[in-house]
Structures are given as C-alpha cells and as structure tokens.
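Regression report. Comparing outputs from two consecutive submissions.

Submission 1:
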Amino acid sequence: MEARGCVEVFVEEGVTASEMPGPSFRQLVDKVQRGDRVLLPDPTRLTRDPARLDFIVSTLHDLGVHVEYLDS
C-alpha cells in the first residue's frame, strides 16, 4: 500500500467481509476529503455483497473521493 502512495491505511480487524463496512470504514469516511484517492486491495476484501459494494463506493464517490483497486 505504501508503494502505491498510501499515506494512511485503514484495516478492519475482527470484521468479516460479510459484516462490512465496519468501524475502520466509518473512520475513513470521517477522514477523507474531496479529491482524495482511496485504494482497495480488491472489491471482495471490502464486501462480497454487490449491493453493499455499490453502496460503499457510491458513498465515497458522493464525498468526492476517487476509488481504485490495487489489482486493476
């Protein structure tokens, strides 16, 4: 993550992808600012539910945040 320019890394510990978004996601949403870039390892690490993934990504987009996946 640091090699791709990440300044801060948010990790959900003790939360499965089916329970996402968890507390670290809420911290991320509180911290990001318009124009920020959020890198995710891959979408299935965030959630395996397509509707939930759409909600999470659209929430970030609504905040003016660009979302990228490391595997792309």
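Submission 2:
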Amino acid sequence: MGLQIPAINEQDSAGNVEVAETVFGQSFNETLVHQLVTRYLAGARAGTKAQKTRSDVSGGGSKPWRQKGTGRARSGTMRSPIWRTGGVAFAARPRTYDQKLNKKMFRVGIRSILSELLRQGRLVVSNDILPATSKTKELSEKLKKIEAKRILIVVDSIDENLALASRNIPYVEVVESLNLSPVLLVSADKVIATPVALKQIEERLA
C-alpha cells in the first residue's frame, strides 16, 4: 500500500503522486538524522588551518642569555610559546573532518527525513514548477502562493532555465534528486519535488 504526496495546490488531488510506504512512511530517527547532518556539515569544512609550532618558527639557534646571574628568568630559546614571537603551543594542523557513515545508515536517515517532511505537510509535488523561460519573475509567480521562508526544489536534472531563474531568489535552493543533501532537507520549510524526481528518490532509497 502506498502513500499520497499532495500536489502543490492542495485542492488539486489529481496531481497527487503515490509513493512507497517503505520509503516515505518510516518513523523519525532523531539520533540517526543528527548524525547524518553532522557528518555532512563536518565534511564541508576545509580543514586547511595551519599554525607554526616552536620547530617551525625561524631563529632561536642560541640561548638568549646565560642560565644564571642576569636576574631574569631562565630561557633556552626565543622560539618558546611563551615568547611574543615564538611558536604556538598546540598549533593547528591541516586535517580532514570527514566522518564515516555507511550506505545503509545514509538511506535510512534520508528516508526518515522525507517521511517526517511528508507527515508535517512540508513535502509536496508539482508538475509545472519548472519555468518555461529563464526569467526570475516567472518562477517567483509560481512560488508566490507558498508561504515559506526557505524552499527546496528537487528535480531529476537542472536545466538552464531553472538555474538562471532561481539563482536570484535568495530563499530558493535547487538540487537534483541524485545529489539530495540531508542539510538542505532539514533546513527547508517547504520541499517541492517533480514526479520524476520522486520516483528517482524512491528507487534509490528502496
């Protein structure tokens, strides 16, 4: 038995799309979704920060002054972290923030997010969301009736018209179904998908 994803106009039941309950009818796994989102955010970090340790700082070849008799604290090198021009005690090094997450966990996490979006009425389908021209005004007119601060449009492939029409609308994100990101899904107030994109998602996550 399948589930019905409502059309963008709730009165137009003819535009509803039936999808598998095994994909869009899962319970919400908050722990797994949090892990999935954290993994994506961590993977987006550059990890290129670098600082110099005492071994990287130039100078310091000789002892600044003799050990005793000067009245000052003993010092062995000017590259010490306690010196103004010295190295950093616990210096940052280039690193990767990638976290491991197997494919099964990814599929279950995405199914959980999509199911919750459907239950909350934030996932709808539309046959005519794609603009016929590259004019931003045309796409804005299509989205005018949707009361949402952030809208995610999911399509099977992004054509030139959609890319050009959506790029100047700050609250709209466009993504292909094969590149669906959990971060985009959870941050969107409304997710609008084309029927073809929904079928691709269903086949991928089944």
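Expected: both submissions complete independently.
Actual: both completed, but the second showed a warning that disappeared on reload.
Relevant detail on submission 2: The chain has a mean pLDDT of 91.
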